[in-house]
Amino acid sequence: MSETGTGTGAGALPQTEALPQAGALPQAEALPQAEEALPPSEALAHTEPAPPLLPAPGQPPGSGSGPGGRGTTAVGPAPDPADGGEAPGLGSFLARAAAATAVLTVLGAALGLVRDQAIARYFGASDASDAFLIAWTVPEMAATLLIEDGMALLLVPAFSLALTRRAADQAPAEPGTRSAGATGEPDDGKAEATGEPGPDPVRELVAVTLPRLCLLLTAGAALLMVGAPWVVGVLAPGLADPGLAVDCTRLTAVTVLTFGITGYFSAALRAHRSFLPPAGVYVAYNIGIIGMTLALHSVWGVRAAAAGVAVGSLLMILTQLPTFLRLLPLARPRLRRPVRLGRRAVRTAPLLGMTVLAPIVLFVVSRQSQVLVERFLASTLPAGAISHLNYAQKVAQMPMVLSLMICTVTFPVVARAMADGQREKARRRVERDLALAGMVVLLGTAVVLGYAPQIIEVLFQRGAFDVSDTEATAQVMRVYAAGLLGHCLVGALSRPFFSSTRPTWFPAFAMGTGLLVTMGAGYALTYRFGVDGIATANALGISTTALLLLMGLGTRVVPIRARAVAVSLGRLTGAALVAGAAGWAAAPVLPDAALSLAAGCVLVPAVFFLTGLALRSPEVVSLLALIRRRFTDGR
């Protein structure tokens, strides 16, 4: 789902760390001064360049360069925390990383819209587009499991722990102390300490995991190609032309391998706090689909789009490969601390055991299964129903994707804090992320509620996509909007659950409960309300999961103040409802869809922020105060 996004609320992203303390959460204690430091503009002007998070192999700490003599990210090196607190320059680094990632996310979203417009133009909402979307279920599932949630939740903490151990091994040992491993464990006496260079934890982690992953995914892709007819029969038993869907499924099956490698590279780079190449993968992906569709649609029909999925997935790997090779320590570093030769590579990756892998896989599969339930139910409806659901979902989820970008950038920070045992720092970071992500997604929700018909008409109403398709898709999109906050919270809350070294089954339980709600409500509502009933079931199921995760996070992993977070999000929800109603009433005033939508992009945010001020939403108050200070004080 990350291939879609929007610029809604992007202006707030560069201030990820700089919101005034008054804008934290209602009834929250004041945050320590060390947490806030300076606003990004002052931090950039007054803070001396900090050394990279981790020195390059063979270089002493503080050398000021990453692997290859350069910083670890295109937006500047990430400062290292001191004394367990958050580094003074970390806020400005995260703000720059979020802003740079936002640019590529919006670009990828724009290309995703062009991709959907091309498919809608040439194939409309028909049997052909339905067949392609059934085949596209495979890369959608693979993207969620292997790029976005699954691989990131598994490998970002693993790489963070390996980086922590590398940093500990490179640090000079204190005189008079016994040698200890990178985790601070005392020597067990079974292995002698030696001054010889030892294995680099990050390099060993890659050597242990990447070849096995490629072998496993290659086998999975081959099995999917062979079993494509059975897969299509299970996903859409009522499809009119299963043969076309089978051909498309075999073409897209390669993404099981290519998305797995892409997700592995993305997790490794984000753990090194290099965010630009992972953010650019969907730009490459959509370019591949668009190019193949435009070039071959007249020859291969909708199979050209399926081939474009395969080509685009290969481009995703090439986008990250140069940076991955640069950051990967190809040469063995000279560790300053004596290393116990008895420690093997597997000790650098305790987070990759089955006890941790199984809960993550079950959570991700349950989450993506909501889409499978939708398409299974829609396959029994008239032709085009699956397409209406797809177009509505892709557009409606743009605000959610952009809001989750905040959590994507800060997830390595939370994982590193949990690895270092800094639970209070993790709590502050998670609460702030929930507030910012909630504000962005609810502002986008208000725009969707008010101007859904205008959005669909501007984006898709051309060629084979007619007025009736616009009306049906817009109605479904408004129903989907009711679950956008739930989707955002599930994405944001699931990351802290999987950032610790202890396996947890609670997210899988919460997601499974939500899936059961979706299935029950879907079967009850689809017969009477059609696609609108399917979208309603989706909103009910994901909102149930979000509520369970919010209630369970504070008692199991990070001690967030669930009630304070709920009150804050409640005020933002009230502002979104008022703004959405205002847009819904004002949208028909201008008959031209483009002009009406342009006016709505001014009206809805204005009403949203004014209502937020009236409801005393601390996030809105803080954001407006920050904007006012920028204009009046030039800071």
Describe the structure.
The protein is mainly alpha-helical. 69% of the residues lie in helices and 1% in strands. It contains 23 helices and two strands. A two-stranded antiparallel ribbon has the order 1-2. α15 packs parallel to α18, α16 packs antiparallel against α18 and α21 runs antiparallel to α22. The protein is globular. The two termini are 36 Å apart. The N terminus is likely disordered.
Specify the helix fraction band.
55-70%
Largest sheet: 2 strands, antiparallel
User: What is the CA-CA span between the terminal residues?
Assistant: 36 Å
By helix and strand content, what is the structural category? mainly alpha
Q: Beta fraction of the residues? A: under 5%
Which strand order does the major sheet show? 1-2
The shape is globular
Order of helices and strands: HHHHHEHHHHHHHEHHHHHHHHHHH
Q: Work out the helix count.
A: 23
Radius of gyration: 24 Å
Give a count of the beta strands, DSSP E runs of length 2 or more. 2
Mean pLDDT: 75
Low-pLDDT windows of residues: 1-86, 176-195, 333-351
Short description:
This protein has 635 residues and is mostly helical.
Descriptive tags:
single chain; 635 residues; mainly alpha; 23 helices; 69% helix
Topology:
Layout: H1 33-36, H2 40-46, H3 90-123, H4 127-148, H5 150-170, E1 193-194, H6 201-226, H7 228-235, H8 242-252, H9 255-271, H10 276-279, H11 281-300, H12 303-327, E2 339-340, H13 354-378, H14 385-396, H15 398-419, H16 423-460, H17 467-481, H18 484-497, H19 506-529, H20 531-556, H21 562-586, H22 593-614, H23 618-633
Antiparallel strand pairs: 1-2
Helix pairs in contact: 2-3, 3-11, 3-15, 4-5, 4-8, 4-9, 4-12, 4-13, 4-14, 5-9, 5-15, 6-9, 7-8, 8-12, 9-12, 11-12, 13-19, 13-20, 14-17, 15-16, 15-18, 16-17, 16-18, 16-21, 16-22, 17-20, 18-20, 19-20, 21-22
